[in-house]
Specification:
With 346 residues, the protein is α/β, with parallel strands linked by helices. Helices cover 37% and strands 14% of the residues. The chain has 11 helices and 10 strands. α4 crosses α5 and α7 packs across α8. 43% of the residues are buried.
Length: 346
């Protein structure tokens, strides 16, 4: 397993990390998977055997039960693993049971530590941006967690560019812990992260931890032109098929993935994951699995590389015109961009 540095930090993480949203199931995550204790321990065994020691969860996954199952699955081997969890989402009916206030984050962290049965979290992410709580309050709280030893590193998830940059500036001004990672939605079918957040990450040394690298199962090869969605796929859940880009672009990407799978002897998901791993700032890609077969297939995304021509073909198939001001920057300042872009500008 390859390891990469997590942003501008001294921590190294595997390029594949295991997401536990499939643990426990529930109203919002049941379509992703419904893994319980015995299967979870088996998944952790498989991960560690493959060199994957980074596990991702969140306090809102199955109302905290994902954290509980993960905690039991790593019991007795906590020192062998890295755990990342997230807070910001609603965890109760009260007015203060949501957001990134000192009150809510403190309660959320203590609850996560209890469910995980551990005294610290290795990476603690803000699951979203709280526009009502002052950024100084949020970051001083997170810095306090780091100083106490309850959190090793902090990160964010689903921030916009100005939100992340303001947070980094506040941390720098006060000498507080800074976000070393941004957990973000990114794939061949959803490349908006490249427009502003990836250049920001290059400039500021923020590592990208990718969630949904297969575009919420759209890049598994199960979605095809003129064919119904398989009943056993999460794509059969109402609303699940429309969250990433337009359908024709998606089919164009899958056509090229088909070609490259044949050329490389890999599967469509393996090719799609490998492309994400080739992108600037990407430190780790979170993958989930509903069973051992899916887990094993995802492992096949590492240990090899697409060549430059194959990457260019995927870039071309997945490109689309970005919104302003990004199309203007590409057209008029392409020689001064922080990394080459092949996004189309009509």
């Amino acid at each position: 397993m390859e390891y990469r540095q997590l942003g501008r930090s001294g921590l190294t993480v595997p390029v594949l990390s295991f997401g536990t949203a499939t643990f426990a199931g529930g109203e919002h995550t049941g379509a992703w998977g419904d893994i319980h204790d015995d299967e979870a321990r088996r998944m952790v065994d498989l991960a560690l055997e493959a060199g994957i020691n980074f596990f991702d969860t969140a306090d809102i996954y199955s109302d905290g039960r994902s954290e509980e199952i993960l905690g039991r699955a790593v019991a007795g081997r906590r020192d062998e693993v890295l755990i990342g969890t997230k807070a910001n989402g609603r965890t109760g009916p009260g007015a203060d049971d949501v957001g990134s206030s000192r009150y809510h984050l403190t309660r959320a962290l203590e609850s996560s530590l209890r469910r995980l049965d551990t005294d610290h979290v290795d990476v603690y992410y803000l699951h979203g941006f709280d526009a009502l709580t002052p950024v100084d309050e949020v970051l001083s709280t997170l810095d306090g967690f780091v100083q106490s030893g309850k959190v090793r590193y902090i990160g964010c998830s689903n921030f916009s560019g100005w939100q992340l940059m303001k947070s980094l500036a506040v941390s720098e001004r006060h000498g507080w812990a800074r976000h070393v990672a941004h957990q973000a939605f990114y794939s061949l079918a959803a490349r908006e992260y490249e427009w502003e957040l990836m250049p920001l990450a290059v400039d500021q040394g923020v590592g990208t931890v990718v969630w949904s690298p297969l575009a919420q199962a759209r890049l598994t090869g199960k979605l095809r032109r003129g064919m119904p969605v398989p009943d056993d796929s999460r794509l059969a859940v109402p609303g699940e098929t429309e969250a990433s880009g337009d359908r024709e672009t998606l089919f164009r990407i899958i056509d090229v993935l088909d070609e490259l799978a044949a050329e490389t002897g890999k599967t469509i998901p393996q090719v799609a994951l490998n492309w994400v791993l080739s992108r600037p700032t990407v430190c780790s890609v979170i993958f989930g699995a509903r069973n051992e077969a899916q887990f094993t297939e995802n492992l096949g995304a590492v240990g090899w590389s697409l060549d430059s021509d194959q990457i260019a073909r995927l870039d071309a198939a997945s490109s689309r015109t970005p919104i302003y001001p990004y199309w203007h920057q590409i057209v008029n300042n392409s020689e001064r961009l922080p990394f080459p872009t092949r996004l189309s500008v009509d």
